[in-house]
């Protein structure tokens, strides 16, 4: 999860988030190089009064500064499209989890099992234990197995919500009357926090999401305790 004065992204816990971090670094380097070149040219123009007549009216220069931005855009667009297709790719899921947004809590249903559903509310400040995180802890965490393809079905029963877990690279709108689908796969166990990312009313800030990613063995034990 995020820590104080953090400037970058959270550590990636899924293959999609790793790709997004690589793409961010790739794009940031291109922006840095362009900004440095523009700053150098501006400082050069301000610090000298000399004018090169053959450069002011040169077809070669105009050709270069027309083609070069197009090449740069292609270098940005191709990795971006690749990640978009990876995020939309739906494989055969090992588990399906249905998520419903409410004002102001989440409800979860494991559709592969009978009567396995629960609501997840934020724990009030007065009930927090030492070491708990303010505005992020919930009474019922979502348990999921690691290294398995999981299908998330996201919808809402009242207003717009957004189910978001930054370290997994997941952000899906919960829209009343519409069922959005995403594929979730994690690469390592841990506890991951998220929040509703769509302004949904007075208590929008009090809709945390907590995922507890465990190995398949411990997930099966959790299922036996819940059923």
Automatic annotation (TrEMBL):
GO terms for molecular function: copper ion binding; cytochrome-c oxidase activity; oxidoreductase activity. It is found in: Mitochondrion inner membrane. The chain crosses the membrane at residues 27-46, 66-85. PROSITE patterns: COX2, COX2_CUA, COX2_TM. Binds a copper A center. Its cofactor is Cu cation. Keywords: Copper, Electron transport, Magnesium, Membrane, Metal-binding, Mitochondrion, Mitochondrion inner membrane, Respiratory chain, Translocase, Transmembrane, Transmembrane helix, Transport. Pfam families: COX2, COX2_TM. InterPro entries: CcO_II (IPR045187), CcO_II-like_C (IPR002429), CcO_II_C (IPR034210), Copper_CuA (IPR001505), Cupredoxin (IPR008972), Cyt_c_oxidase_su2 (IPR014222), Cyt_c_oxidase_su2_TM_dom (IPR011759), Cyt_c_oxidase_su2_TM_sf (IPR036257). Its main location: mitochondrion. It is a multi-pass membrane protein. Residues 92-225 form the Cytochrome oxidase subunit II copper A binding domain. One of its GO terms (cellular component) is mitochondrial inner membrane. SUPFAM superfamilies: Cupredoxins (SSF49503), Cytochrome c oxidase subunit II-like, transmembrane region (SSF81464). GO terms for biological process: ATP synthesis coupled electron transport. Residues 1-91 form the Cytochrome oxidase subunit II transmembrane region profile domain. It catalyses: 4 Fe(II)-[cytochrome c] + O2 + 8 H(+)(in) = 4 Fe(III)-[cytochrome c] + 2 H2O + 4 H(+)(out). CDD domains: CcO_II_C. Belongs to the cytochrome c oxidase subunit 2 family. Component of the cytochrome c oxidase, the last enzyme in the mitochondrial electron transport chain which drives oxidative phosphorylation. The respiratory chain contains 3 multisubunit complexes succinate dehydrogenase (complex II, CII), ubiquinol-cytochrome c oxidoreductase (cytochrome b-c1 complex, complex III, CIII) and cytochrome c oxidase (complex IV, CIV), that cooperate to transfer electrons derived from NADH and succinate to molecular oxygen, creating an electrochemical gradient over the inner membrane that drives transmembrane transport and the ATP synthase. This is Cytochrome c oxidase subunit 2. It comes from Lepilemur randrianasoloi. The lineage of its organism: Eukaryota, Metazoa, Chordata, Craniata, Vertebrata. The gene is COX2.
